[in-house]
Amino acid sequence: MRILPICSVLMLVALLGCEGEIAPPAIPPSNVDSAPPIRDGAYAVYETSRTFSAPLVPLRRWIEKDSKIVAAMEETDRIKKPVAVVVLKGDWPDVNAVRRLEFSDGHYVLERVLENNIPTLFRYQVWNYTSAAGRNLSYAIGQQAWESSESGGAKLTWTYRLMPNAAYKRPFVQRFVDSDMRPLMDNALDRVQSWAIEAFSAATAPSQN
């Protein structure tokens, strides 16, 4: 089964933790058909991209192997990493498949695949935040888009769109995106880009034999 990086919610589960802690649920969520309808509206958005010298298909496979974007993120007091993943519906990452992520603080989210066009696009919806994020977010849409460059390399563009559960919360959610998600996403892709330079340079280096 193909494994995609768990990038959809790492920086979302601790949103608004300053409002007070919420105890993790005693029973993990499993309501796979409860995803909110996707709608037009004022999302909080951040998008970042990096260009790689590696060709598109090998690059995407390499990034997905061992969840390299996740590995490039450092856990903080506000941003937790996943410690367990359970597929609840379908065959991940097929369209409409649903999985549950458990984080190091004991909280959960659900995630479903919206599109998976190999090798150019992966879109997913995240909802059912059991942490403090659930006080303010209805859902999020994540997207990773790949395209070939004229030089024979590839470009990865990573986008998050967060839908507040009330319109008046959008400015605050956008401030969180700008102050916390922006550096997290940028730093992660910087590290992945650095790793890719080393990995693909080694793969194409001439043999010494």
What layout of secondary structure does this protein have?
Elements: E1 44-52, H1 56-64, H2 68-71, E2 82-89, E3 98-103, E4 108-117, E5 121-127, E6 137-148, E7 154-164, H3 170-204
Mind explaining what this structure looks like?
Strand 3 (98-103) and strand 4 (108-117) form a beta hairpin. With 209 residues, the chain is an alpha+beta fold. The N and C termini lie far apart (36 Å). The chain has helices at 56-64, 68-71, 170-204; strands at 44-52, 82-89, 98-103, 108-117, 121-127, 137-148, 154-164. It contains three helices and seven strands, in the order E-H-H-E-E-E-E-E-E-H. It has a domain at 42-75 and 118-203: START domain (Alpha-D-Glucose-1,6-Bisphosphate, Chain A, domain 4).
Features:
23% helix; 209 residues; 3 helices; single chain; 7-stranded antiparallel sheet
Q: Would you identify the regions where 5 or more consecutive residues have pLDDT less than 50?
A: none
Q: What is the level-2 CATH architecture name of the domain at 42-75 and 118-203?
A: 2-Layer Sandwich
Largest sheet: 7 strands, antiparallel
Mean pLDDT value: 87
CATH class category label of the domain at 42-75 and 118-203: Alpha Beta
Structural class: alpha+beta
What is the beta-strand fraction? 25-35%
The name of the CATH superfamily of the domain at 42-75 and 118-203 reads START domain
Give the CA-CA distance, first to last residue. 36 Å
Strand order of the largest sheet: 1-7-6-5-4-3-2
Helix content: 10-25%
SSE order, one letter for each helix or strand: EHHEEEEEEH
User: What value does the Rg take, in angstroms?
Assistant: 17 Å
- Total strands: the figure is 7
Number of helices, where a helix is a run of at least 4 consecutive DSSP H or I residues: 3
CATH topology of the domain at 42-75 and 118-203: Alpha-D-Glucose-1,6-Bisphosphate, Chain A, domain 4
Q: Specify the overall morphology.
A: globular
